[in-house]
Design goal:
This protein has 119 residues and is mostly helical. Helix content is 72%, strand content 0%. The protein binds zinc ion.
């Protein structure tokens, strides 16, 4: 469980790095100030996710907790880095894809839990 959360953080971190290095001219493994803030923000959102401990991957989440500005930024990152991740980090990406496939069940469970509490 903990592994899955840290894997998602790692996946996001690598995606932002890929994007920043190519689009903001930063050196490999480094981030510009703006992308550093974006990364902090994404990690904070993961830590505060209402689905925890059984959090789905952000891509499949039904809540979309990002504020507008960060949402635009992360969309750009996903669009650029998404297709490149498989080549650069195949194992990480495969794990992340499997997590995505298991999400349907997680979201169902969450809905059942929360509906049980309401009314
Ligand atoms: Zn950047």
């Amino acid at each position: 469980m903990r592994n899955r959360i840290s894997r998602e953080k790692k996946t996001i971190e690598e995606m932002i790095k890929l994007y920043c290095n190519k689009n903001h001219g930063t050196k490999k493994g480094n981030l510009c100030y703006k992308c550093e803030l974006l990364l902090d923000y994404t990690h904070l959102r993961i830590d505060k996710c209402p689905f925890l401990p059984d959090k789905p991957t952000c891509k499949n989440c039904t809540i979309h907790c990002y504020t507008k500005n960060y949402k635009e930024d992360i969309k750009k990152v996903m669009k650029y880095s998404g297709p490149r991740m498989m080549k650069t980090f195949p194992i990480l990406t495969i794990h992340h894809l499997i997590d995505g496939i298991l999400d349907k069940k997680r979201i169902e469970n969450f809905n059942q839990r929360t509906q049980g509490n309401k009314k």
